[in-house]
């Protein structure tokens, strides 16, 4: 092992931004530039000229990056956890005990406060200062009115007050934007800190706790719940600033109207109970909505990861109905929430005529959703705290500091379990494994073989005893975990490249022939979860990763089961065996291949979680116990396959691999028909460019439904007209009061004036209520329609799409983008419409008081539109890039959850945490640039609004007392409001355009190529196929146009009820043949005929629904055993029990408390791989079709289970046509005929006996496998 790479330490440095990245100049610019964000103008200019790209954006300040934020927060969280614990008592015991005491567990909010308190205090100070300046403007406005009343002509102090109003407004604008910028960055820092902690917790979470949280639920914690915490931070200052503004308003009003202001205060106090009731109800609705969202995302995640099974079994409609059922429940909650908002708006809008105009004006401009935001966040904080306080793996369960000199691993009376309060899975283990030895573990399915390795790794909860191990660990899991990265990076796994040793690893793992087929050699990117490579290739890459790590202890969970026999022999001889590269290392090998046992230094036989026997091969043979029965069954069933040391004539591939290594460059593209490498590079998410297409908005409005749109416009038009009418009525009323000389006459008209004012207010409230109701109905209609279209489009995509695109991209559309559609987009539309009407009304009111104002409005309005157009190009593209940057965060997190055991075994937690910081950092860059761009826009828009207000005040001063004081007051009041209205109008116009990106992303799947229709006009007769005759006629197929043919002129025909074995070396086209039969891959020439029907002329579901397949990787979905066996609900319980009995699972299922209703964990993690494969067999038994395809169906089970499966298939499918793709050649030796493939062509097709006599390709493969007839 000399020259092997040195393992990296636990500390990993991030890949720092290159010098080409644009460092943020914010910290080095002048004060004025920092206040006005002028330094950001160059980026806006670049975005206006061309679509922005990643390299155009400014980097984060180091203090805002996750590399700084996360460690600081984790330090405070550890302190909080330490305060909440007593001694070393496990957390789950503490929670049980503390329910009876005053202990409440660690507080997430308190930890966040301790981490970010100085920044939050700074934000609060800026908010307070901006609020005080906001109240100075009405006082200056009052002074202008006084000047107007007392001086018939323009007066000097009036000009001074106009300039003072402008100065105060500009100062308030700059301070408010400084507050907004710091507030948003504080919020995103909090979200970043929480996301980082969730990720780290997921890596340390105990398996018993992990089973309480599905991948979808944990992803929701990172996206939805962390987002709620961010939203609370954005609005947290309103908890004190709202009462502060009310108190200030009451003080000023007291000076004007005296005790009558208390009437308004009483009304405000009366609506508090109403708000409390609404908040309580909203809290319950939010919990329900998050629960349904979790269920939906969880189900979608499982469907997308198991999409191949859904398509092969034609189960898409059944699972589509399941998703839509959950979605309907979620939409019902959204409907209730929308109606609650309608009631809330009615309550808030009907009180204007009950309080004074000024008091209500201050209150009405408070955000009515803040109480509800806090309520939603309380639910999220509770969920986050529950997850973060869940039990971790106990590092003390395994003593890794074992300093013994003779043993690498030792168990002393060890008992272990997977679940809290569950029964022990491993019992009383006592064994010492010598250093440098090869130990094999054998046993039946479910006997505890894989659990033995998990106990060594510390993945199980230790009940009693001692476990000790020494040195570094490399782990190869039974189901290979592959990263979405290049093949080389998958093997290096964070280590430095040592080219000679790396080449040696490639040769030893039989990967060189595969590399020669790749376009970019070992730089070819492997798809998510290794979807674009075969099971055998995944396992060899996983083994290469372990081999390259140069660890001290190797834990190998049946890595030979997924590879061809001759490749398995090569791997054992070159790597695992006595003369392999690991001969000096300690190796613990779980295996079902008994041919390797004679080479083992120690054999452990597991039975029901115990070590039933242990010893060398000769010792166990001499004892003539269960071990002899095992070997006898093996040898009799597998046609004299030798159980003596592996010796066979070298294969062509081995000859090739055996050649001496020479220095080489990364291998270049070579034309190949290899079906395994059907996807050569992994597609990155495409980011749209250019302006928002009207077609996108039209799609939303069509889903919104036109009738709701027109009703919404009418309602908002009416309510804004009535709002202006109210204010004009008050203005007229005030003017008449000033002119009345007879108090008695004024008092008589008072009731009439008050009734009209009240009627206007009440009517406005009704229209607000109507507008909110129709908007809710329309938005729910859009949510339903767009979700249904997205789900339908995704399920109709061909399988190749899922193999070339990370699942995170699709999940991102069902979470982040649909969140915008559900809750945000209609709010932006409503706000923009309202602001548009307010701006028009404001201009009309001010112009009526000062006609000259129109001269100012036109150029300033044009400048506003110009600024908006100049800004929107950059904002829209930054939002698009941000949306795309969120997918890698989700994909990396999902990838980490899937491979957490491997990551922990290699000790690479810190490196993956650093990688998470990297992808989060990229996402934050877009957020940072987006926040600054918003502030850049706001400063400029509000400055233009301040100019409008200044000119409105100036024209009033110029008019002198020719205009009534009431009209002056109304004019300046509207001038003050235009700053906010104009800013909001442009901002919401930009928000609509940038958030339309979500609708664009949701709808883009409609434009992708779909697979052929599920059902066509031509349908096969009932009972088809009834004979099971399959005929390939000159069939050709390729995975992509730029690749060679994966099948090239294949022609053969099966007989009815014939058993055909399909064999061939890696890349021969075995899996492609199956894909073509199920039309996962459509042919380019020729045809496939089944019982007289060309399968290309019927629908996919008519075809796939009448075929059966047992895949190589057993896929189960979370839910009951019953739903996994029969998702369509076609079979009775009796039929299910019969199928389970045939698969030898009846006793196991009957032993479960819930029996058929036993909950299967996500991915079937609470069942062994063998049990999962047997359940897949039970599925097929229930379908009872005439054609069955076995795709390495017994690769992951022991020999006894293999025998059971094979005998069950022979017995139950005796009248069916069976196609068997095999790595273990013994499974096809009793076939009626064998089809030998090579490079997509048929080499041989005859009975096994004739092929063996012919001494051709099949005979050579049999000789290599050591099988004798």
UniProtKB/TrEMBL annotation:
<feature type="transmembrane region" description="Helical">
    <location>
        <begin position="754"/>
        <end position="775"/>
    </location>
</feature>
<feature type="domain" description="ABC transporter">
    <location>
        <begin position="1030"/>
        <end position="1264"/>
    </location>
</feature>
<keyword id="KW-0472">Membrane</keyword>
<dbReference type="Pfam" id="PF00664">
    <property type="entry name" value="ABC_membrane"/>
</dbReference>
<dbReference type="InterPro" id="IPR050173">
    <property type="entry name" value="ABC_transporter_C-like"/>
</dbReference>
<feature type="transmembrane region" description="Helical">
    <location>
        <begin position="158"/>
        <end position="175"/>
    </location>
</feature>
<dbReference type="InterPro" id="IPR003439">
    <property type="entry name" value="ABC_transporter-like_ATP-bd"/>
</dbReference>
<comment type="similarity">
    <text>Belongs to the ABC transporter superfamily. ABCC family. Conjugate transporter (TC 3.A.1.208) subfamily.</text>
</comment>
<dbReference type="InterPro" id="IPR003593">
    <property type="entry name" value="AAA+_ATPase"/>
</dbReference>
<feature type="transmembrane region" description="Helical">
    <location>
        <begin position="260"/>
        <end position="278"/>
    </location>
</feature>
<keyword id="KW-0812">Transmembrane</keyword>
<feature type="domain" description="ABC transmembrane type-1">
    <location>
        <begin position="123"/>
        <end position="374"/>
    </location>
</feature>
<protein>
    <recommendedName>
        <fullName>Multidrug resistance-associated protein 1-like</fullName>
    </recommendedName>
</protein>
<feature type="domain" description="ABC transporter">
    <location>
        <begin position="409"/>
        <end position="633"/>
    </location>
</feature>
<keyword id="KW-0547">Nucleotide-binding</keyword>
<dbReference type="GO" id="GO:0005524">
    <property type="term" value="F:ATP binding"/>
</dbReference>
<dbReference type="GO" id="GO:0000323">
    <property type="term" value="C:lytic vacuole"/>
</dbReference>
<feature type="transmembrane region" description="Helical">
    <location>
        <begin position="852"/>
        <end position="872"/>
    </location>
</feature>
<feature type="transmembrane region" description="Helical">
    <location>
        <begin position="119"/>
        <end position="138"/>
    </location>
</feature>
<dbReference type="Pfam" id="PF00005">
    <property type="entry name" value="ABC_tran"/>
</dbReference>
<dbReference type="InterPro" id="IPR027417">
    <property type="entry name" value="P-loop_NTPase"/>
</dbReference>
<feature type="transmembrane region" description="Helical">
    <location>
        <begin position="708"/>
        <end position="734"/>
    </location>
</feature>
<keyword id="KW-0813">Transport</keyword>
<dbReference type="InterPro" id="IPR017871">
    <property type="entry name" value="ABC_transporter-like_CS"/>
</dbReference>
<feature type="transmembrane region" description="Helical">
    <location>
        <begin position="943"/>
        <end position="962"/>
    </location>
</feature>
<dbReference type="InterPro" id="IPR036640">
    <property type="entry name" value="ABC1_TM_sf"/>
</dbReference>
<keyword id="KW-1133">Transmembrane helix</keyword>
<feature type="transmembrane region" description="Helical">
    <location>
        <begin position="232"/>
        <end position="254"/>
    </location>
</feature>
<keyword id="KW-0067">ATP-binding</keyword>
<keyword id="KW-0926">Vacuole</keyword>
<feature type="transmembrane region" description="Helical">
    <location>
        <begin position="343"/>
        <end position="366"/>
    </location>
</feature>
<keyword id="KW-0677">Repeat</keyword>
<dbReference type="GO" id="GO:0005774">
    <property type="term" value="C:vacuolar membrane"/>
</dbReference>
<dbReference type="GO" id="GO:0140359">
    <property type="term" value="F:ABC-type transporter activity"/>
</dbReference>
<feature type="domain" description="ABC transmembrane type-1">
    <location>
        <begin position="710"/>
        <end position="984"/>
    </location>
</feature>
<dbReference type="GO" id="GO:0016887">
    <property type="term" value="F:ATP hydrolysis activity"/>
</dbReference>
<dbReference type="InterPro" id="IPR011527">
    <property type="entry name" value="ABC1_TM_dom"/>
</dbReference>
<feature type="region of interest" description="Disordered">
    <location>
        <begin position="636"/>
        <end position="674"/>
    </location>
</feature>
């Amino acid at each position: 092992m000399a020259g092997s790479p040195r393992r990296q330490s636990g500390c990993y440095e991030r890949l720092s931004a290159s010098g080409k990245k644009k460092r943020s100049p914010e910290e080095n610019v002048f004060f004025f530039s920092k206040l006005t964000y002028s330094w950001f103008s160059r980026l806006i200019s670049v975005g206006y000229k061309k679509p922005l790209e990643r390299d155009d954006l400014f980097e984060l300040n180091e203090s805002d990056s996750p590399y700084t934020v996360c460690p600081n927060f984790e330090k405070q969280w550890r302190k909080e956890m330490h305060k909440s614990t007593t001694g070393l008592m496990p957390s789950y015991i503490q929670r049980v005990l503390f329910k009876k005491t005053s202990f409440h567990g660690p507080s997430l909010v308190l930890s966040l406060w301790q981490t970010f308190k100085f920044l939050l205090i700074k934000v609060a100070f800026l908010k307070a200062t901006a609020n005080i300046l906001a109240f100075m403007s009405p006082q200056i406005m009052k002074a202008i009115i006084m000047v107007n009343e007392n001086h018939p002509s323009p007066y000097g102090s009036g000009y001074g007050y106009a300039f003072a109003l402008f100065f105060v407004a500009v100062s308030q604008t700059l301070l408010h934007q400084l507050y907004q910028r710091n507030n948003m960055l504080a919020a995103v820092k909090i979200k970043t800190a929480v996301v980082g902690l969730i990720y780290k917790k997921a890596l340390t979470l105990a398996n018993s706790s992990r089973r309480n949280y599905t991948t979808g639920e944990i992803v929701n914690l990172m996206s939805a719940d962390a987002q709620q915490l961010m939203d609370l931070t954005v609005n947290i200052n309103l908890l004190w600033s709202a009462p502060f503004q009310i108190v200030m308003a009451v003080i000023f009003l007291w000076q004007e109207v005296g005790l009558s202001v208390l009437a308004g205060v009483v009304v405000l106090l009366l609506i508090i109970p109403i708000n409390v009731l609404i908040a309580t109800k909203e809290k319950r609705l939010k919990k329900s909505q998050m629960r349904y969202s979790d269920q939906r995302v969880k189900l979608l995640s499982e469907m997308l990861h198991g999409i191949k099974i859904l398509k092969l079994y034609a189960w898409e409609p059944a699972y589509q109905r399941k998703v839509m059922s959950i979605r309907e429940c979620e939409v019902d909650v959204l409907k209730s929430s929308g109606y609650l908002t309608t009631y809330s708006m009615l309550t808030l809008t009907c009180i204007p005529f009950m309080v004074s105009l000024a008091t209500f004006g201050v209150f009405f401009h408070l955000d009515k959703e803040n109480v509800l935001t806090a309520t939603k966040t309380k639910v999220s904080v509770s969920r986050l705290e529950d997850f973060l306080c869940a039990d971790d793996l106990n590092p003390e369960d395994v003593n890794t500091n074992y300093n013994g000199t003779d043993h690498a691993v030792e168990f002393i009376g060890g008992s272990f379990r997977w679940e809290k309060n569950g029964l022990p899975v491993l019992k009383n283990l006592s064994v010492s494994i010598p250093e440098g030895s090869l130990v094999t573990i054998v046993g039946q399915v479910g006997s505890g073989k894989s659990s033995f390795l998990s106990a060594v790794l510390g993945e199980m909860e230790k009940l009693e005893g001692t476990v000790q191990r020494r040195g570094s660990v490399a782990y190869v899991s039974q189901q290979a975990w592959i990263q979405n990265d290049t093949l080389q990076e998958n093997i290096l796994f964070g280590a430095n490249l040592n080219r000679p040793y790396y080449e040696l690893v490639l040769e030893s793992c039989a990967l060189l022939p595969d590399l020669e087929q790749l376009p970019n050699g070992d730089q070819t990117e492997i798809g998510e979860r290794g979807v674009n490579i075969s099971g055998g290739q995944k396992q060899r890459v996983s083994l290469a990763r372990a081999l390259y790590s140069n660890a001290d202890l190797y834990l190998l969970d049946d890595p030979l089961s997924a590879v061809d026999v001759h490749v398995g022999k090569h791997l054992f001889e070159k790597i695992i065996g006595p003369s392999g590269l690991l001969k000096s290392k300690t190796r613990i090998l779980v295996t079902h291949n008994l041919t390797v046992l004679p080479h083992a230094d120690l054999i452990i036989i597991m039975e029901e979680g115990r070590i039933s026997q242990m010893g060398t091969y000769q010792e166990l043979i001499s004892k003539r116990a269960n071990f002899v029965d095992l070997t006898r069954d093996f040898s009799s069933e597998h046609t004299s396959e030798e159980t003596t040391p592996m010796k066979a004539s070298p294969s062509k591939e081995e000859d090739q691999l055996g050649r001496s290594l020479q220095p080489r460059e990364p291998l270049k593209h070579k034309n190949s028909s290899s079906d395994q490498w059907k996807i050569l590079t992994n597609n990155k998410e495409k980011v749209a460019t250019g302006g928002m297409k009207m077609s996108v908005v039209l799609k939303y409005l069509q889903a919104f439904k036109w009738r709701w749109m027109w009703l919404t416009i009418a309602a908002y038009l009416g309510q804004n007209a009535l709002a202006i009418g109210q204010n004009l009525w008050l203005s007229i009323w005030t003017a008449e009061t000033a002119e009345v000389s007879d108090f008695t006459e004024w008092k008589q008209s008072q009731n009439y004036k008050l009734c009209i004012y009240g009627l206007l207010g009440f009517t406005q409230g009704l229209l607000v209520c109507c507008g909110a109701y129709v908007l809710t109905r329309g938005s729910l209609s859009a949510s339903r329609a767009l979700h249904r279209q997205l789900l339908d489009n995704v399920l109709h995509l061909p399988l190749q799409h899922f193999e070339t695109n990370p699942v995170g991209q699709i999940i991102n559309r069902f979470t982040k983008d649909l969140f915008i559609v559900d809750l945000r987009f209609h709010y932006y539309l409503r706000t923009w419409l309202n602001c548009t009407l307010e701006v028009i009304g404001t201009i009309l009111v001010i112009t009526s008081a000062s006609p000259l104002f129109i001269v100012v409005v036109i150029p300033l309005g044009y400048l506003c539109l110009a600024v908006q157009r100049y800004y929107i190009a950059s904002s829209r593209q930054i939002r698009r890039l941000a949306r795309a940057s969120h997918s890698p965060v989700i994909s990396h997190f999902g990838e980490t959850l899937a491979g957490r055991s491997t990551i922990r075994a290699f000790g690479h937690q810190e490196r993956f945490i650093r990688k998470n910081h990297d992808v989060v950092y990229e996402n934050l860059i877009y957020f940072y640039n987006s926040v600054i761009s918003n502030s850049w826009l706001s400063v400029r828009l509000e400055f233009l609004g301040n100019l409008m207000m200044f000119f409105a005040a100036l024209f009033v001063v110029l008019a002198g007392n020719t205009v009534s004081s009431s009209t002056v007051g109304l004019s300046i009041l509207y001038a003050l409001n235009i700053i906010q209205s104009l800013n909001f109008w442009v901002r919401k116009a930009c928000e609509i355009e940038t958030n339309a990106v979500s609708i664009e992303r949701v709808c883009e799947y409609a434009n992708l190529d779909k697979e052929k229709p599920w059902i066509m006009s031509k349908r096969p007769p009932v009972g088809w196929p009834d004979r099971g005759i399959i005929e390939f006629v000159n069939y050709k197929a390729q995975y992509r146009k730029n690749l060679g043919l994966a099948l090239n002129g294949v022609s053969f025909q099966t007989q009815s009820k014939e058993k055909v074995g399909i064999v061939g070396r890696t890349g021969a086209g075995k899996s492609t043949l199956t894909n073509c039969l199920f039309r996962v891959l459509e042919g380019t020439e020729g045809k496939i005929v089944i019982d007289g029907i060309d399968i290309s002329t019927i629908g996919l579901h008519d075809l796939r629904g009448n075929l059966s397949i047992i895949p190589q990787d057993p896929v189960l979905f979370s839910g009951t055993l019953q739903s996994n066996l029969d998702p369509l609900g076609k079979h009775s319980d009796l039929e299910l029990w019969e199928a389970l009995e045939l698969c030898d699972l009846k006793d196991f299922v009957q032993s479960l408390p819930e029996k058929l209703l036993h909950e299967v964990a996500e991915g079937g993690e609470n069942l062994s791989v063998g049990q999962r494969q047997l359940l897949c067999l039970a599925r097929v038994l229930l379908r009872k079709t005439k054609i069955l395809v076995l795709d390495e169906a017994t690769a992951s089970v022991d020999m006894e289970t293999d025998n059971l499966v094979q005998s069950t298939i022979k017995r139950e499918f005796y009248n069916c046509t069976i196609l068997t793709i095999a790595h273990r050649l013994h499974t096809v030796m009793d076939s009626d005929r064998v089809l030998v493939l090579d490079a997509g062509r048929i080499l041989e097709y005859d009975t096994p006996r004739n092929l063996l006599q012919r001494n051709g390709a099949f005979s050579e493969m049999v000789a290599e496998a050591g099988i004798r007839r």
